[in-house]
Amino acid sequence: MGTMVLGDLLDEAVLMLRSADARQDAEELAARVLGVESTGLDPRRDVDGRSVRRLRDLVGRRADGVPLGHLIGRTVFAGLELLVGPGVFVPRVHSELVLAAGLESLGDAAGPTVVDLCAGSGAIGLALAHARPDARVHAVDFDPVAADFARRNAARRAALGDTEVSVHEGVAGRAGALTGLAGEADLVLANPPFMPDAADVPDEFGRYQPRQAVFGGADGLRVVRQVVEAAAGLLRPGGTLVVEHGHLHGATVPALLRESGCFAEVSCRPDHEGWPLYSTAVRTGTDAPSS
Ligand SMILES: C[S@@+](CC[C@H](N)C(=O)[O-])C[C@H]1O[C@@H](n2cnc3c(N)ncnc32)[C@H](O)[C@@H]1O
Questions:
Q1: Which of 255, 230, 224, 245 is nearest to 101 (CA)?
Q2: Atom 6 of ligand 1 has which residue's CA nearest to it?
Q3: Pocket of ligand 1, candidates 141, 149, 214: which has the most ligand atoms within 8 Å of its Cβ, to mutate?
Q4: In angstroms, what is the span from residue 95 Cα to ligand 1's centroid?
Q5: Terminus-to-terminus CA distance in the chain, angstroms?
Q6: Is the CB–ligand 1 distance for residue 141 below 6 Å?
Q7: What is the architecture, at CATH level 2, of domain 4-64?
Q8: Ligand 1 in contact with 91 (CB < 6 A)?
Q9: Which residue is closest in CA terms to ligand 1's atom 8?
Q10: In the prediction, which pLDDT does 20 show?
Q11: CA 41, CA 22: separation in Å to the nearest integer?
């Protein structure tokens, strides 16, 4: 296979990818292969045969559903570049709405304490720490691979001047013991796995994202229940829980929150297209959750 012009290769890749983000994905993959920033790609440049083969291989894997972040080793969430790779969930842009709701709930109160449950790469907690340098942020994930990515991302962000996020490896249900923050948190943020085990999801989520990051038991709510219970234990009265749950649970998660007897002001909020995405709730008192 001989040399090709980059512009032709990118056009070919877009045809293969056929997604709304095809051009952007093709450029990111080309930048990775050529060792340049995607903003610095010159479509008139020649690409040698070895790089043509490498790019076509990556484009084929992306077309098969492998997340872009797993192919290039990084992603951007809320403007922050994060390390990701096989074995860790690649954050979705939708979750920036969870972050925004959490930031809004904090208002101007100085030095808030925040816990990110089911933190994965640390995306939400790290973005919170970036936006609020006065916050003490704890991130919890039970998966050693995810916790390792979160730790490395926390160290990179700290090196760039952000307040360091503490990463804890353990189940969401034990977050109180892990962080030592029972009854002290001002905000709990969570993007737990919420798809029912038998749900038919795109290959990107069903085959390539880690299973424990996507599927949450027969009804999808196994970890969400842990999150509700853990948040009831972590939050001070008046503190806020923001939990992502997707469109399937627009009624069930608010019901769970109300039935716990620990939350008021329960509200389900939509994504940019109007589908239920996450719920917010305010901790009412100091009673233990009724599980
Ligand atoms: C959908 S991913 C979200 C990751 C990250 N918050 C984000 O938005 O990109 C869910 C994460 O929850 C973790 N997880 C699943 N069950 C858990 C549990 N019981 N306790 C703690 N973490 C859990 C998975 O390892 C995965 O990293």
A1: 245
A2: 119
A3: 141
A4: 13
A5: 63
A6: yes
A7: Orthogonal Bundle (1.10)
A8: yes
A9: 91
A10: 86
A11: 16
119 lines ligand 1 (CB under 6 A): yes
3-state helix, strand, coil in the chain (%, to 5): 45, 20, 35
Q: How far apart are CA 7 and CA 146, in angstroms?
A: 36
Flag whether pLDDT at 287 surpasses 60.
no
For residue 193 and ligand 1, the question of a CB distance below 6 A is answered with yes
123 lines ligand 1 (CB under 6 A): yes
Supply the mean pLDDT for the chain.
Answer: 95
What per-residue confidence (pLDDT) applies to 1? 66
Q: For 164-202, what is each residue's pLDDT tens digit?
A: 999 999 999 999 999 999 999 999 999 999 999 999 999
Residue 113 Cβ < 6 Å to ligand 1: no
Q: What mean pLDDT do residues 130-154 have? A: 98
Q: Which sequence spans correspond to the domains of the chain? A: 4-64, 77-283
Banded pLDDT at 291 (limits 50, 70, 90): very low
- Residue 194 in contact with residue 224, Cβ under 8 Å? yes
CA atoms within 13 A on the CB side of 270: 4
pLDDT, mean of residues 211-222: 97
The answer as to CATH 3.40.50.150 being correct for domain 77-283 is yes
| Intrachain domains 4-64 and 77-283 with the same fold | no
User: Residues 220, 210, 247, 185: is their CA dihedral positive or negative?
Assistant: positive
Select from 76, 188, 212 the residue to mutate for testing ligand 1; criterion: most ligand atoms less than 8 Å from CB: 212
d(CA 2, CA 164): 48
Strand partners, 139: 116, 167
